[in-house]
Amino acid sequence: MTWSTRQLAELAGTSVRAVRHYHDIGLLAEPERASNGYKRYGVAHLLRVLRIKRLADLGVPLSQIAEMGDGEGFPRDALQTLDAELATTIERLQRIRVELALILRQGTHTDLPPDIGPAAQVLTDADRAFTVILTRVLGPSGMGALRDLLNDQRDEPATAEFDNLPADADESTRAELAERLAPYVDELTSQYPEITAPATDSPVGAKRAAETVGKALRDLYNPAQIDVLVKVNRLLYGPDGQPPGKDRRPGPG
């Protein structure tokens, strides 16, 4: 008793295309052909296809099934490896479900960690995007400081003016805003130094962290806002980037 390719596929609960694929990758030996040229499959072929399908259904890759050869022994090593991989996958999926539940409950953005998302709800689009970039370059200490900073939302009028500053703001407007913004920035950088120096334990290294932060600032904020940030930096640290003396610090007004 022999079967055609279609009959073999039907008996094994698979498709003709799958049987042909098993031939192509060397998983299934080619059968003899009848005088009319059609393949003639026997019981050994059916058993082989059933074994391949069963292992594949369990999640064993076809490449790994091929490495087992045609032997019918119990593939303990392959199944143990698969079990370990599944355990890791299940653990990862469980973590994802916990995060998804938190995101759904809080209604926060998916591009931010769940413990940061709620506090970032009040940020502008640019600030939120910049926060996302920071999460990629900050190390553990920086991330802790970022969480604290986001939860330490303060009512500072100068920051609202900065958020709404038009790109064509004139020089006097930018300079005056920088003067009022500098004390607030000085206070934050003193309280959260890990954010202003992300390279200390950055996972991407000092150079890439600085380059990434700089590019994000240039791309996310308009020219007037960038100019205000430059002016604030000069007011706080001087043109040479070194901390200025007390007399060069801007006053609280």
From TrEMBL:
UniProt entry keywords in alphabetical sequence: DNA-binding
Pfam families linked: MerR_1 (PF13411)
SMART domains named among the record's database cross-references: HTH_MERR (SM00422)
Keyword Cytoplasm (UniProt): no
HTH merR-type domain: residues covered: 2-71
PANTHER family, alphabetized: HTH MERR-TYPE DOMAIN-CONTAINING PROTEIN, REDOX-CYCLING DRUG-SENSING TRANSCRIPTIONAL ACTIVATOR SOXR
The protein's name in its UniProt record: MerR family transcriptional regulator
Taxonomic source organism: Nocardia fusca
